[in-house]
Specification:
The complex is a heterodimer of chains A (575) and B (351).
Chain A: H1 26-31, H2 47-58, H3 61-80, H4 88-97, H5 99-108, H6 117-146, E1 161-167, H7 171-184, E2 188-194, E3 197-204, H8 207-232, E4 234-241, E5 245-247, E6 255-258, E7 271-281, E8 291-301, E9 309-314, E10 319-321, E11 324-341, E12 346-351, E13 355-356, E14 363-369, E15 376-384, E16 387-390, E17 394-397, E18 406-414, E19 434-436, E20 446-450, E21 454-456, E22 462-479, H9 484-502, E23 506-514, E24 520-528, H10 535-547, H11 566-573
Helix pairs in contact in A: 3-6, 4-5, 6-8, 8-9
Chain B: H1 2-33, H2 44-51, H3 58-64, H4 70-77, H5 90-128, H6 136-158, H7 164-182, H8 197-234, H9 243-246, H10 250-283, H11 291-309, H12 318-341
Helix pairs in contact in B: 1-5, 1-7, 2-3, 5-6, 6-7, 6-8, 8-10, 8-12, 10-11, 11-12
Classes of the chains: A alpha+beta (575), B mainly alpha (351).
């Protein structure tokens, strides 16, 4: 299949386009006059020559290869080091664990690998390199696609797929019929006459190189399309507790990532309420504890004043409001607590979102009661949906559903640090200026609360009651204008790749001449440009169609092509 | 019904592992018996059959050696067979026959193993009432089935029985690990996988993975064989003995490796792009640089580099084969490393 190794000079003829995706850069090199870095550098380069030399270097296959390697290498750190765009919380905890690396990593952009300068530089260079190859190649192809099929070789009988016979039909009649036949097979046909010998040359399979070019261009379309979609779109996340509403406005989001060209004013003014959240787990059998489905019952109002409607939001079943999509990407528990302060007043009451830590939905969370007096109160700890005691006398959750909800908290009193100025995460308790509530013998006191239980913190600090729980839904809201562009690009890329793989360029020749006896000798031969096809079968078909109507003059002076089984073996050797 | 199917599946996996092990032993015998055979040794029966040119009766005997010997090479290229110049000893001809017989038994056992494994995978799907692609055990049994099917397909199309030993060895290893370490009882699919995209995305990735595996094995054999050839070229007195000398030459092996990779690459592209479309539908973004996505991308880039390397002067041959192996390493890391230790959205290993 690889022919470029036989003809290392690259594209030697304008019609030589039977190439595949992997030698896409040959034209660029050819125009640069061979492998550029083997050429000795001229003693002094004028700017224009230098620019040309740089361009040749950049668009050479070697450089493309190096850039591909670099791209692969550059992608690796982003999968090992937490990324701000994917998980800001993991980045925060990584920074806490490795304070000495923070400055260096920040400077290298290792927390934002895929938007860093060096990553961008590599793929920009790769795109330029690709363009610098594809454009000249497309020009060559445009010429080749208009060219006439190549002339017949002198010795057709040397080709693997060859048949000949003699007939009483005139040479020009045969040629005319051959022309019609090959045309009807949607081949490009050229007929000419050499000293009375009628030749019909046909070629098919121009789509191979076209597919190759389309594939590479479509990759660019996909990349540019995704980039543009990102520029004009946004992505945001919000956790909504059952019974609560979400209004699509910047302040409502937990996390919002706009594209640089996105206008906040373009946020679709919809409102949704999570009326209920259903989740089911396999309760028995070997898959016990595996989620079998979750969905959120929403009431959606497209814009103020519009008629509200219900929507069943599920994974793989997103909601679309005027081009803004809402996806259900997760869920969890929000224990409902009532915190009373030392004065006996309610300092906090309501659900608090806890983040699931594992598949049993053991969830971690923080409760803050800044309004408590005389001192502020803070709690952190775990919510066990189905609390149990596991091996090692460790409390654990044995099932993700809330069969036996238990809240286990450590309490603190003092200053929550909310007035320090810096924004504080709702999932982190700053205990720097707080005092841990301890037991009488000075050990940390764990508050273990079942539903409805109250724990007094002692010393008139306050109390906390575990009222129950709500569920919350993690929603992702995003808008990706023009997402059809990358989708079309994807389809084109696959079509192009298939074309460059499965289209088999084939040349066919039919030559007819009158011999000394006045009869017409017809020769049919075919040549495949890539392996895997069966040119002999094609020749046999052409012969059958050409001879068919003439019937009786079947005097067969030459044996027809060899028996069929060899066709496959010939394909082996022809590559 | 479900229970029966689950039992059937488990037993079929054990049986397939055992059958593949036997196949591997046969291929070991095939190699061992060919250890001292010169590259051009031919079995008596084959020599006679070949000498009798294209007599129809020779078809059976000829097909017997069609994979591994130079005689087979000659057969498939249509070149006339040149009888070995050196007088053949009786035992050499015997060894050729015996080696070849073990090779054929190994191949037959592999076919049997594939059938049993296919029953195992399908019954697992019936028992689970879904496609059997829900956790790492199921990925492993489906993926190794893809490897085996890809190998048999290539045996049929390109006569690559010389891949038998490494392929069966790989199958035994993967199925053994799957059955012993990765096994998980049937459980329902997590909701994120409730989509017809699962079929498209995972099946194309599995088939591509199977082909990548066979391609990598062929690339390794190519590297070994081309090293042998380089040594022999430097030292003409070196005896050309052993199974690898009786396999096709380095160039032919490389061609097979290329074809497999060229088949797998578009499929992998398709799998990745389908994954991106599905991700948009399920999670609201085409591409999120999730660790699995990153490594799928790295694999794609590495194999793209391989295809380009083959067309670049100075990178053809051994260098390109090393690039292909790098690509396979990234593929394996994605399957094993990211599934077991990774985080992110693609954590379906069930481990």
């Amino acid at each position: 299949m690889r022919r470029q190794s036989e003809r290392p000079s690259g594209v030697s003829r304008p019609d030589d386009f039977a190439r595949t995706a992997d030698d896409a850069y040959v034209v660029g090199e050819q125009q640069g006059g061979g492998p550029p870095d083997r050429r000795p550098l001229p003693p002094a380069l004028r700017p224009i020559e230098f620019a040309r030399w740089i361009w040749r270097q950049l668009t050479s296959m070697r450089t493309a290869l190096v850039l591909l390697f670099l791209l692969a290498l550059a992608s690796i750190p982003g999968s090992l080091i937490p990324q701000t765009r994917i998980s800001p919380s993991e980045v925060a905890s990584f920074k806490q664990r490795h304070p000495d690396l923070v400055t260096l990593f920040d400077r290298l952009g290792l927390f934002n690998v895929y938007s860093s300068v060096w990553f961008g530089a590599i793929y920009l260079l790769l795109m330029i390199s690709l363009l610098g190859c594809i454009v000249p190649r497309a020009r060559v192809y445009a010429r080749a696609a208009r060219a006439r099929p190549p002339k017949a070789p002198r010795r057709l009988d040397r080709l693997g797929a060859y048949e000949t016979w003699t007939t009483d039909e005139s040479a020009s009649e045969v040629a005319t019929r051959a022309r019609g036949l090959l045309k009807s097979q949607r081949r490009r046909v050229d007929a000419y006459d050499v000293d009375g010998t009628q030749v019909v040359a046909a070629e098919k399979g121009y789509l191979r190189e076209a597919g190759n070019l389309v594939f590479h261009l479509a990759l660019l379309v996909v990349l540019v399309g995704v980039a543009v979609t990102g520029l004009y779109g946004f992505k945001g996340r919000v956790a909504v507790i059952t019974g609560n509403s979400f209004q699509n406005a910047l302040v409502s989001y937990d996390d919002f990532t706009p594209g640089s060209q996105f206008d906040i004013a373009n946020l679709a003014p919809f409102t949704l309420t999570v009326d209920d959240f259903h989740v089911s787990w396999a309760r028995s059998g070997v898959g016990r504890g595996t989620p079998t489905g979750f969905d959120a019952d929403l009431t959606v109002t497209d814009h103020p004043g519009a008629q509200p409607y219900n929507y069943d939001l599920r994974v793989n079943h997103p909601l679309d409001v005027d081009g803004t999509s809402v996806f259900l990407i997760g869920h969890g528990y929000a224990p409902v607590v009532t915190v009373k302060d030392g004065d006996g007043n309610v300092a906090y009451s309501g659900p608090v979102i806890f983040l699931p830590q594992n598949s049993s939905f053991l969830s971690f969370g923080v409760i803050k009661a800044p309004d408590a007096s005389p001192t502020q109160l803070g709690f952190q700890g775990y919510f066990f949906p189905t609390a149990d005691i596991c091996t090692g006398n460790v409390p654990c959750s044995t099932f993700p559903d809330a069969d036996n909800p238990v809240l286990s908290l450590i309490a603190y009193s003092g200053n929550l640090g909310l007035d320090k100025g810096a924004a504080q995460s709702v999932y982190v308790l700053d205990t720097q200026d707080m005092k841990q509530i301890k037991t009488a013998d000075g050990k940390p006191r764990a508050l273990i609360l079942s539903k409805g239980e109250t724990a007094d913190l002692g010393d008139g600090v306050g109390s906390i009651r575990f009222d129950g729980y709500e569920r919350w839904a993690q929603l992702q809201v995003s808008r990706q204008p023009g997402k059809l562009v990358p989708l079309v690009g994807v389809l084109a890329a696959i079509a192009g790749l298939l074309g460059s793989l499965f289209v088999r360029p084939r040349r066919t020749w039919v030559r007819s001449r009158t011999d000394e006896a006045g009869r017409t000798v017809v020769e049919v031969a075919a040549l495949d440009r890539v392996s895997g096809g069966d040119p002999k079968a094609h020749v046999a078909e052409v012969v059958a169609r050409l001879r068919g109507p003439t019937g009786p003059d079947d005097a067969d002076p030459q044996p027809r092509s060899q028996p069929k089984p060899e066709a496959r073996e010939d394909e082996e050797s022809s590559t | 019904m479900t229970e029966t199917m689950a039992h059937l599946s488990n037993n079929a996996m054990y049986a397939a592992t055992i059958v593949y092990t036997l196949a591997m032993f046969c291929h070991v015998a095939e190699w061992a018996l060919a250890r001292s055979l010169p590259a051009d040794a031919v079995a008596d029966a084959d020599a006679a059959a070949l000498a009798a040119a294209a007599a129809p009766a020779s078809a059976v005997a000829a097909s017997a050696v069609v994979t591994s010997s130079p005689a087979a090479e000659a057969m498939s290229t249509g070149r006339p067979i040149v009888p070995p110049a050196a007088p053949r000893t009786r035992s050499a001809a015997d060894d050729v026959e015996r080696s070849d017989r073990y090779g054929r038994i190994g191949l037959s056992l592999t076919v049997l193993g594939v059938l049993i494994q296919a029953v195992g995978v399908i019954s697992r799907g019936i028992a689970a009432q879904r496609v059997p692609w829900g956790n790492m055990y199921e990925f492993a049994i489906t993926g190794s089935l893809a490897v085996a099917v890809a190998y048999l397909f290539l045996v049929r199309k390109y006569h690559v029985r010389w891949l038998g030993l490494p392929v069966t060895g790989f199958l035994v290893l993967v199925l053994g690990i799957a059955v012993i370490v990765l096994y998980r009882p049937i459980s329902p699919l997590v909701p994120a996988l409730h989509s017809y995209w699962l079929m498209i995305h995972v099946s194309s990735a599995a088939i591509a993975g199977g082909a990548f595996t066979v391609g990598a094995i062929a690339s390794v054999l190519y590297l070994v064989r081309s090293r042998l050839e380089a040594k022999a070229a430097a030292n003409p007195d070196l005896p050309r003995r052993g199974f690898l000398w009786r396999a096709p030459d380095a160039e032919s092996i490389d061609r097979v490796a290329y074809r497999v990779h060229a088949f797998a690459f578009p499929l992998w592209t398709f799998a990745v792009l389908c994954g991106a479309i599905w991700a948009q539908y399920a999670w609201g973004r085409f591409w999120g640089w999730d660790p699995k996505e990153v490594w799928a991308f790295i694999t794609w880039v590495a194999y793209a580099a391989y295809l380009h390397a083959r067309a670049t002067a100075g990178w053809q041959g051994r260098a390109a084969a090393y690039v292909a192996l790098c690509g396979y390493a990234t593929f394996l890391f994605n399957f094993v490393g990211i599934n077991l230790f990774g985080s992110g959205f693609h954590t379906y290993s069930g481990m």
